[in-house]
Amino acid sequence: MSTKMKTVLIVVVLLVGIGVINYVAKMDPTQLAERGVGRDPHSHGHDHGGEEEPPMAPEDLYRPFGPEDAEVTITVLTRDETELKNTLRPMLTETASDYEGHVRVEFIEKDTEEYDRLVKEAAAGTLAGLLINGEMVKQVPEAPFGVVTFAGSPAFDDWTWHDVRLAVEHELEAKGVGFTPQAEHSHPVDPHAGHAHSHEGHDHSHGSEH
Length: 210
Hints:
This protein is about 35% helix and about 10% strand. It is of the alpha+beta class.
């Protein structure tokens, strides 16, 4: 092939490429999306929820759940809204559902008079933790020393979700409420993957003895 012919072919290819680029640039974004432009080649046309979820509104984040006349009320004190959204609220929702309407969960907004009052009067100055029927320290015979203090966060191994279930069940037993035991079938739950809930020399498994 002559040099002249090669040059002509190169020019033709460049012109075609420029035309395609201009055509795509003028297309509506919706048309581009329909043609798969900018789509992950592995997506196969499915939406995998790559977009970040909008932040939960405060009125939703702090909305209580469970009947107001429930035998057990769990009151949540925390200043960490990320932990509240990602760990505390989901896990307490699951815990409350285990006991068929016998548990109510309330979330106290930080920097409110109610929060300050509970921290001072019920939590002995502790800024984060759970109050179970108004108390942060609960008798749990299966636990070391027979009590669990629900101060702090499960993220730091201060207490476990197994502890919460045990405390709830002892409250229900004390009130003569019938329920299906859940704690004996549960284990210390890790609120963030890869982080063990066992203290050194301090076993939180509690076993399944009653």
